[in-house]
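quick one, 307 residues, struct below
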Amino acid sequence: MSFGPRSTVLVTGANGLTGSRVVARLAQAGQPVIATGRGARREAIADLPGVEYVETDLARAGSLRDAIERSGPAAIVHCGAMTDVDACEADPLQAWTANVSATAEAAMAARAVGARLVALSTDYVFDGEAGRSYVEEDRPNPRGTYARTKRAGEEAALLLGVDVAVARVAVVYSARKGSKRTFAGSAAEALLAGKEVKAFSDQTVSPTLADNAAEMVIGLLRSGEKGVWHCAGGSAVTRFDFARALARTLGANEGLVVGVPLSSVALAAPRPRNSSLRVDKIRRLLGSAVPLDLSAQLERFARERVR
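---
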């Protein structure tokens, strides 16, 4: 099946951070969209033209595959996942069902209807021990249930699909109305209220504004390229430095940001110390300005807050 500007795209996880922005960007471009998600259609994708909403549950076997095979889209963007790292650690079976089995369903259904598939993954497929940002060719070494299931989901997509790309995103955040609450949003509220914000000083990541992640994912979808791609923000920073940059952007007091080590918090699941991603490959494909650096992201984030 060929994929063009009037072809229908099915987006899973449409109520989520990246999924909602993929749906919005496609709809705004006039692309017919079937948005799927658990529960009712949420505010983040409410009132978008040309969008049909279908309720699905990744934890229910066959739910996603049935939705894809019934609708027969030309392309699928699989954003849906169980992303709460500590919740995954507490419930490996649910994490496997949502992150591996559902991705396998998406890939097999895409094959059955002849659809192109872009499946989202995560920076956490790396253990963070390299001491540098990771490129697509680096060998994954996931630690913890979330990371291991997302890596298995990558393999499911690549092995079972035909026309497949995997898009790794990282530390996704948004300030858009109706979007899921994230550290960036909570930190912004605290900083503007003059309250202290604690942030890890020894964990380096590639923060990614949800709208920018969606821009890269859609660009990858339309390119026809296959394989693994890093679709993350263009800056590698500690969470502490991210919070300080956020304070500066908002005109808040940087001194309210307090750096703490990962070891200071009892976390159920392991976190990589440096899972930042190199984005040279997606830059070459879509243009040097597409993966936004941190300052450009935060400026856009600040504008989102006042809409």
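Residues 9-173+208-234+276-292 form a domain with the Rossmann fold fold (CATH 3.40.50.720).
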